[in-house]
Specification:
Layout (H helix, E strand, L loop, with lengths): L1 H27 L3 H27 L6 H30 L4 H27 L13 H20 L7 H16 L10 H46 L3 H16 L3 E8 L2 E8 L9 E3 L3 H9 L3 E3 L2 H4 L9 H4 E11 L2 E11 L7 H47 L5 E3 L5 E4 L5
Antiparallel strand pairs: 1-2, 1-6, 2-3, 4-5, 5-6, 7-8
Helix pairs in contact: 1-2, 1-7, 2-3, 2-7, 3-4, 3-5, 5-6, 6-7, 7-8, 7-12, 8-12
Amino acid sequence: MPNLISLLFDGFLLSLAFVFVLLLLWHDRQKRQIQILAIFLVVLTGWNAGLMLVRAATLTDSYNPDSLLLGVALIEGGIAASSVAFYAFISTLAGTRSPQLVRIAVMSIIAVISMRVVFTAWAWAADSLNVIEQPRINNLPVLFFVFYAGLALYTLYTQRRKITNGFLRSGSILFAVGQFLTLINADIGIAAFATNTISLGGLLIVLSVVEAEMIQPLAERGRQVATLYHVGKEIVGNARLIPVLEEISKQAASWVGGDAGGVFLRDGDHLRFVAGYNMPSSYANYILSANNGLAGLAAQTGRSQRVERYESDWKAEPDFPHAPLAFGSMIATPILSREQVSGVLIAITGHHGKLLRDDDVYRLELLAPQAAIVIGYTGLLDLKTALAETIEDSRQQLETVLTSTESPVIAVDRRMHLIFANPAAY
C-alpha cells in the first residue's frame, strides 16, 4: 500500500509538471532551456515507469525476466539521463554549458543501457537451473551520473548572482538529494522517499521556468506601462532636461534591478555625463571620449553593450575613474534620435549586486526612446525660445528704425485698422 501511494504521488507530480511543460512549449518551443526541460521531464517519467515495472514484478510470486530487464534499464537510464539533462539545463541558464561533457555523458548512457540489456539477458539465457535472480542496479555507473547532478549544483552555487529564482534553487536541491539517495537501496537502486523527493524537485524546477518565462514578463509589462506613463508625464510637465533625465536614470536602475543609472549626452567627439541616479557627485559633467568605455562602444556601434563582470570582462579604458573597483555588471544602451546617437543610457550594479542579463538589455532598450523624446522635446523648446528671442530682437530693431526716420510711416491691417504709426505721421 505505501508503495502504491508513493507511485500515485509521483504520477500526480509528474503529470502536473507535464501540463506546465506543454504550456511552456506552446509559449516558446524554440527556446533551448525549455527544450532541455522537456527532455528532463521525459526521462524522469521513464525512470518512474521503470520503477513501477520493478515494483510490480517484485510484488508477484514469480519474476517476469522481461519486465525486470526493462524496468531496471529504464531506472538506470532515467538516473543517468535525468542527471545529464539537469546539468545541461542549469548550465544553459548560467551560460556555462560544456558540449564535451554532455557528449561524453550521452555516450555513457547508451553504453550503460546497452550493457545492462545485453549482459543481463545473456545471464538469464545461460541459467541452466532456470532460477532467475532479481537484477541489481550497478552503483558504479549510477555514481558517475550522480556526479553530473553535483556538478549542476556547483554551477548553481557559483552562478547564484545570475540564477536567483527561489523555486529553481529549492527544486535543484531536492532533485540532487533524491539522486544521492538512489545509492542507498542496493536492491532496486532507489527508495520511495528518493523518488518522491526527485519528483517534487522536478515540479519545482518546472514551476521556476513557468514563473521566469510567463508570470514575470506579464507582471513586468504592467510595470513597464506604468513607468513609461510616469516618464511621459515628467516629459510633458517639466521642460527642463536634466531633472527628466535623472528620473529616467532612476527608472533604468529600477527596471533592471540595478544599483545606479545615468545618461551621457553627445558633445562633439565626446560624451558628457549629465544626469545620474545613485552616482557619485564627482561624476557630474564627466567627459568621456567616444572611443573609450562601454558607453563609448555603445555610441560608436549604435548597439547596446553589456558586461557581466566589469572588473574582469572589460579590458579597455573604463567609463569612470575607479569603475573596475566599484562596478559589478553594466549595460550601455545608445539613445537614438533620427538614426543618430545623441547619448547613452547606462545601468550599473555593484560587485555584490545582480548580474545583468540579456533580458535587462531589452528593458533598457524600451526606456532609451523616452530619453530620446525628452532630448528632442527640450531641444525643440530651446529652439522655440531662441526663435522667439530672435523675432523680438528683430521687431525692436525695426521699430527703432521706423521711429527714428523723418518720413511718415503708417501700417494698417486688412480691415484698415491702424496698427503702427511713427511720430512723423502725426
